[in-house]
């Protein structure tokens, strides 16, 4: 009786599975595999310990530096080292599995190797597909430098999820919230991030007063009533410019810095305090305001350039004739 092609394929598949099970799933092979994995995990922990010591030294050095460019460069180094922890651990586990296979099966039959690889691919793709998606997303995010350790980010599409990045791997990101909470995110759930490059929000108050000295006192009295700290008002309001804009009318611009998420300290609390203090005075001096706005110098420069280019008029050209009668254009 001639066997059908389906029966032949089924027999071959059964033989391959049996051969793989005999070569892989036996006591000696499993014990060696466990020992290899244990050594790889211990080595990974030791390497992670050393790299985290280096990361702490870099972060401490960055905290003492005032130059923002140097700090950002050190943060990138810190992020690369943190990422390398996960990469090295993964590489050690892969090497341990490879060493186990070579050690246990030095003369392994090619069919068994191919069969074991096929089984591994099926298991990995089926069981660890969410992890693989996280790793792929994390790789592209890190390759494009979305953010790094020490950056304050707001995560999309989550409306109120924000904090300082404490740890980054190819699979996940750990964030420390303003309230001290630790937030873990899988990388594939991050659709976008908003970053505070300088770590703080700079907000300006525009105040129109009828007496400059009394307006200055209002700003100083407001500062005394606002909470100052790393997670509150980082830098109090400072008058950066003043200009007389009319008869007995001055425009005062005061700038302050808040921690990310604490913008309300200036936008709401400072505005209400200035109005309340002015109402307590016998001679009220506020003519208009205060008006709150963001005052980042880099953003103002780039938006100013954009607006300047938008208002440029196109060059008008008129047609002229040369001696040969050919048409040419000439700019006005």
Query: Strands of the largest sheet, in order across it?
Result: 4-3-2-1-5
- Coarse morphology: elongated
The tally of strands reads 11
End-to-end gap: 95 Å
Radius of gyration: 33 Å
Uncertain runs:
none
Query: What is the H-and-E element order?
Result: HHHHHEEEEEEHEEHEHEE
Helix content: 40-55%
Report the average pLDDT across residues. Answer: 76
Please render the helix and strand layout as text.
Layout: H1 5-24, H2 27-63, H3 68-104, H4 110-127, H5 129-143, E1 152-156, E2 162-168, E3 172-176, E4 182-186, E5 192-196, E6 201-209, H6 212-224, E7 233-246, E8 249-258, H7 264-280, E9 286-294, H8 297-310, E10 317-321, E11 327-331
Helix pairs in contact: 1-4, 2-3, 6-7
What does this structure look like?
It is elongated, with a radius of gyration of 33 Å. It has 332 residues and is an alpha+beta fold. The longest helix is centred in the first third of the chain and has 37 residues. Helix 2 packs antiparallel against helix 3 and helix 6 crosses helix 7. It contains eight helices and eleven strands. The strands form three sheets. The chain has a five-stranded antiparallel β-sheet. A four-stranded antiparallel β-sheet has the order 7-8-6-9, covered by helices on one side.
